[in-house]
Amino acid sequence: MAKPLLLPILAALLLTYAVCALSLLPCPPCGTTAVPYPLSTAANCGDQSYKIRCVAGKLLFDSSNNTYPITSISPSIQRLTIAPSPLLPNACVAADLPSNGLQLNPTGPFNVSSGNTILYLNCTQSITESHLNCTQASLCHPYLNVTGGACRNAPCCELHSGGTIRRIRMRDSGCRAYTSFVDLDPGLPVNRWPQPAVALRWALPPEPTCVVQADCGSGSTCGPDRSSDGGIEVNRCFCNSGLRWDPVAGLCSQGPFTECQNPDGCSYHRIVLIAGISICIGIVLIAALIGYLVHNRRRRIKRDQKRVTQEREDILNAGGGGRTAKIFTPREIKKATNNLSEQNLLGSGGYGEVYKGILQDGTLIAVKCAKLGNAKSTDQVLNEVKILCQVNHKSLVRLLGCCVELEQPLLVYEYIPNGTLSDHLRKGNLSWKQRLAIAQATAEGLAYLHFSAVPPIYHRDVKSSNILLDGNLNGKVSDFGLSCLARADASHVSTCAQGTLGYLDPEYYRNYQLTDKSDVYSFGVVLLELLTSQRAIDFDRASEDVNLAVYVRRLVAEERVMDGVDLKMKEGASGMELETMKALGFLAVGCLEERRQNRPSMKEVAEEIEYIISIMDAKVA
Predict the structure, then answer these.
(1) How many angstroms separate the first and last alpha carbons of the chain?
(2) How far is CA 88 from each of CA 122, 124, 150, 340, rounded to the nearest angstrom?
(3) pTM of the model
């Protein structure tokens, strides 16, 4: 009697966790290769945003400019691999060179995933001097020594795609050929390397689109997608109450997902097995949760210890064109700042607090402290250490060292006595000549980050309160907590939009693609602040003029740009000074162009400001 009673009980348990509605079926196999959801080879299966092709039993991937054979698919990690473009006969030239290599749709769901070891072949001398690994220690040299052929004696470089990029760029002025290996073990001899392949990862799909309810399963309802952009209404099959969307399997469910999706039912043996697994998983999850709650602090401390160790190694090994940071002891910092007393507090913000201090040798310092126990604040401070150890420029705040405690890392800077540009603009105590000099120094510092740092650095939080003024009112760019290192051979960095309201590049905010032109936009707002002495966001202005960039662009459209210039600064100004004010205003508006490709580079901005200053200096002379 036990067995007949056990089966219905197990079946009931299974139904509690089972898949409730299949929203859209996966496509049938292509030859012998399965086509998992959301990949689509036809209009009636999969997700139409994830189209691939099945031709004569073989799967093909269409990029923006070429077609590549698919060699494998791993749905559990949302990854497929394609064969890289072959070389032309008797030449070290990729067949997709005329179309600039592998180019993925920038708005599509696919990107070049991490795990690729990309070897760039037949490169020009200018590429070998870049931040790619083109040394004799790079993996491309043993590869060419074994494979031989037309590429044997051509310059080559190595790149590990540690993030997500959308192209492997080929061009006559750069590298003309490439190959790639997925999850390569560099310790293996070349003759044991895997077949060349490029790994592409796809983003998890949203619920499938629908026109009528019949397009959806019984566990979902066809309704409008309120989050769709562009004003185009899109209907999707949203899971009913109590169910949730599983983007891997492409279905609605109320519990752990199983392989049993047979509409005619499953065998009791399969039910018993799956139900048992489900119960075991539940027990394990509960035990893991309890363990997590009990040991959370201990694990966090161990994790932080490991990260601290790695950060210290990175700091001590930093150098090149930048500087090496000194490791201060907690005792040195406490003595210098009187134990971080409130009397020494200079300011505070989302990152933590800044204290004034004096070292034993008499050096004045500013100490930035991450918020105790705040992981985001800690990450920003550690990121700033890594950034500032790689750069060295007179217009960038100078990092003296750091003290990386267990839970509260500290940064030690040179002390900048005159506060921020924002403070001085509010007080109105800067002359026009001083404002131009500050603009020039800031532009040169940012241009250095974009064009001289290797790899290039995007500041990501350029604003007047992050520009410090020294005793001679020289501008120094500070606060690199949000800064990013640009990726090799990539047009942008894909990241969630971060920054300060009023300074944030609208194109970066829309598509999460960070470029050097995002800093240019933010600097354009700083130029407007120098001209107007007004805040980037000010709710005391009329509602349509709250945003300073919008306000000044309206004045330019109405040919009244000088109406926005600070009245105190215009009083007594010479005709030449007024002309340079107007010139800087138009430069600022150019930096604020809606489309980033229409904005100048930061190097061009610095050169233009230098030209404006030279005009005024020549007139005075």
Answers:
(1) 108
(2) 13, 18, 10, 66
(3) 0.52
Same domain, 350 and 482: no
Q: Give the number of residues written for the chain.
A: 621
Do 473 and 610 reside in the same domain of the chain? yes
Residue range 244-300, pLDDT digits in tens: 888 887 788 776 544 433 333 333 334 434 544 566 577 778 877 887 777 776 776
> E strands within 75-214?
79-82, 101-103, 110-112, 116-123, 156-160, 167-169, 175-182, 198-202
Catalytic residue among 304, 461, 505, 516: 461
Q: How many domains does the chain have?
A: 3
Residues 6+ apart with CB under 8 A from 344: 337, 338, 355, 356, 357
Distance CA 86, CA 164 (A): 23
Tell me which residue has tokens 């509409």. 263
Task: Output phi, psi for 122, to 5 deg.
Answer: 55, 55
Whether residue 239 is contained in a domain is answered as no
Whole-angstrom CA distances from 251 to 217, 243, 265 are 9, 10, 17
Tell me if 378 is assigned to some domain: yes
- Please say whether the beta carbons of 483 and 522 come within 8 A: no
Residue type, 225: D
Q: What is the CATH number of the domain that holds 463?
A: 1.10.510.10
Considering the domain architecture, whether residues 341 and 474 belong to the same structural domain is answered as: no
- 25 in helix, strand or coil? coil
CATH number at residue 390: 3.30.200.20
Residues 105, 85 share a domain: yes
Mark whether 476 and 614 lie in a shared domain: yes
Q: Is residue 24 part of a domain?
A: no
Residue 213 lies in a domain: no
Torsion of CA 550, 556, 558, 561, to 10 degrees: 110
Residues 455 and 576 in one domain: yes
Contact indicator for 388, 405 with CB cutoff of 8 Å:
no
Which residue in 328, 311, 469 sits closest to 412, CA to CA? 328
Q: Facing residues of 355 across strands?
A: 345, 367
Domain end call among 363, 397, 414: 414
Residues 6 or more apart whose Cβ sits within 8 Å of residue 416 = 366, 397, 468, 469, 470, 476, 478
Query: Do residues 351 and 491 share a domain?
Result: no
Determine whether 461 is an active site residue.
yes
Domain that holds residue 386: 318-414
Percent share of the chain, pLDDT over 70: 82
Residue 40 · residue 46 · CB < 8 Å: yes
In the predicted structure, residue 7 carries a pLDDT above the cut 50: no
pLDDT (tens digit per residue) in 41-73: 998 888 888 999 999 999 999 998 899 999 999
| Rounded (10°) angle between helices 516-532 and 548-557 | 70
408 and 442 inside one domain: no
d(CA 456, CA 215): 49
Token duo for residue 2: 């036990």
Domain final residue pick, 201, 227, 245: 201
In one letter, which amino acid is 475?
G
